[in-house]
Amino acid sequence: MNRFQTAAAPPTVALPKPKPAVAQTPATEKEHERILASYGGTYDDPKLEALVSKTVDRLVAASDRPDQGYKVTILNSGAVNAFALPNGQLYVTRGLLALASDTSELSSVLSHEMAHVLSKHAAMREDQARQAAVVTRVVTDMSNDPDLTALALAKTKLTMASFSRNQEFEADGIGVGISAKAHFDPYGAARFLSAMERNAELKAGKTSLDPRAQDFTSSHPATPERVQNAQTIARQYSAPEGAERDRESYLAAIDNLVYGEDPSEGFVRGRRFLHPKLGFTFQAPDNFTLDNTAQAVIGVRDGGSQAMRFDVVRVPAEQSLGDYLNSGWMEGVEKASTEDITINGFPAASVTAKGDQWQFKVYALRFGSDVYRFIFAARQKSTESERNARETVNSFRRLTLDEIQAARPLRIKVITVQPGDTVESLSHRMAGVDHPAERFRVLNGLDRTAQVKVRDRVKIVAD
Questions:
Q1: Do residues 110 and 59 lie in contact, with contact meaning Cβ atoms separated by under 8 Å?
Q2: Mean pLDDT, residues 54-76 taken together
Q3: If you ran DSSP here, which 8-state letter would residue 326 be given?
Q4: In the predicted model, is pLDDT for residue 210 greater than 70?
Q5: How many angstroms separate the CA atoms of 403 and 282, rounded?
Q6: CA separation (Å) from 388 to 79, 191, 326, 391, 425?
Q7: 92 vs 110: CA distance, rounded Å
Q8: What's the half-sphere exposure (Cβ side, CA atoms, 13 Å) at 210?
Q9: Where residue 319 falls among pLDDT bands split at 50, 70, 90?
Q10: For residue 3, what pLDDT is reported?
């Protein structure tokens, strides 16, 4: 070959267009931090992030506004939730990803949130939330206001103002259209709305004070009308079995996903709170419901006549615990009641405080370099409320090595149905969940009579 022969001109390669950026403002950055703090931070899982971004890219390309940028954050929370900020920041919890059964269901949630951004609903909701915040001074601490009701103790809440019924229907309509144009099965929305409704029914018995447990259904009501509406819209785009569900790659991406509470952040089991990372545990009194919120562990007695809050506070090493309790962070403290005590070998101090409506008993306890605070509130001081406070504090102890090692998170495991397997036999393999058979059906999108088929891939919860 002649060395000087000119090579054929290389074919011109179209460079991929850079993705539109998401505009940050101080307000959205602050909101982003608040969301991360309330929902356990981000959940890092590269294969899951890749699946979510690929889905978003496909939806953006099919939407009427391919110039609008989006950035998705996966939140480390077992709640089933998703929301959007007006600038295109989208959030989905790992709890939502665990509940969805295929990529078309995930695409229905993402396109629904994109629709709220495109319709400017998210901006309207932000204004509403801002007004609400002015009206309700959110109680972040007990400072200077001893007359808090038991529930106000728990009000370190993230509230997302909910959308109106019309905004939800509108976002469903736009979302199903975007999903269908991106060649996802448009019936994914109706299936996922049904799954959420059934998931909410399973939870209905349990009231929760934790904002992270307020799921998608409380800010986006999943009513039978919405399911019906989503089906009607989907029919305009395709026959029920036509489009892509992309179930296999979805299940591969969520295999091994952490399910429920992440024990490394501390978790509640019944009346006991355990924090394996920090190495301690305590138990709440009978008839108390415990909730691990982002800022504190909150306990409320049935009927609401007593409440407790457990949190960590900064106390300089040289300051005595008695001095800390009397240092003015709380009003109504009776200084004469200050007592230095020892709890299971740990230095501690206690004090009583009075408000108009509530009586308080407060303990501070030094554990390693940290100081933990127990605040007990009772409508009326009684021997029972005194005993409850004392027994709870006395139950504070170091976790054993075995207990720390046993505190592993539950995970979603994807398995193949074998000959002889049934819904009942597979649900018996589920660990750490209530109503295992019903939970298995909800997790796998099976209605109340459906059975599993050999070689199907299904999700179970395992430790």
A1: yes
A2: 93
A3: T
A4: no
A5: 13
A6: 30, 46, 23, 5, 42
A7: 8
A8: 26
A9: very high
A10: 41
